[in-house]
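Example record

The entry below shows one chain as it appears in the dataset: sequence first, then structure tokens.
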Amino acid sequence: MTMWKITSGRGSRLTKEFVENNVVAVGLDDETDFTSVTSREEMRALVAQRVPSLTEKQVIVAGSQWWRFLNELQIGDEVLVYEPDTRNYHFGEISGPARFELGLIPELPVVRSVSWRTEVPRDALETTTKNSLGAVLTLFKVPADAEMDVKRVVTGEKGSLQADDTGDLDAEADLDPFSDIEGLALERVKDRINALSWDDMQELVAALLRALGYRTSISAAGPDRGKDIIASRDGFGFERPRIVVEVKHRRGQMGSQEIRSFLGGRHADDRGLYVSTGGFTKDAHYEAERASTVTHLMSLDELAKALIEQYDQLDEDGRRLLPLTKIYWPA
């Protein structure tokens, strides 16, 4: 039995579709059926024809990955797919052969059925495992040490890692190292944010609001009646609208009850911002959408993206909590 990591589209944006449809999927585009390809060479030729912008080495790597999806993934093999919003890896088992199914997963029409078993929190994994699973390859065998770590979390066992097999990761040498540098950087930033204490998280959210031109007032520790931060243009909350902010820094999604509690007692012209590093349930989003008070639910993924976008405007307090270095490379 082998464990594989599969990326659900650029930025792992299709993970929910994978899980809801009980599949993993790959594709050259939204219409090419390559399930009848009979050799790696034929697959590479098809990749070169359908995606002419790829270099020769990228064609070799991509062709090999799609070939493996068809022929090397076996029924019973384990598979991981990452979901950025929840920071969890969905862990499942391949339960069917490759097939062409147009329209099931956008842009990825070659699928294999999966029986999803559980979720593995990224924050429960060793740093070396996080780095291994962040590789830019679309499909690869999980290195032995990372596989052991994932199974340690799945089974609840404790122990140190022993193996040092690098799996397929050496194949990355054939890829453009910057091909998904933004996605990899975003996950590292989220790791740093998630490691903050609750107090520091609250301060970081306040720093983001100040970067956006607001003045902020942070509630003292203790009962806050559903508000951790008040943001307004004048700094006192007299000038409307004011933004009332709740910050939840914990594992686990916030549900509709938490959103209702937050919205209770809000003024009609208030604006609500609810930040949850554990994300939100569908019911929570529905509750916020139908509320009379305009309310935005911000996940860790959105928070990290907003901080990166506004980083040049962050004050010293914000940069102290989240020190980042800007890099440049050819577009």
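Notes for this example: The mean pLDDT is 88. The radius of gyration is 22 Å.
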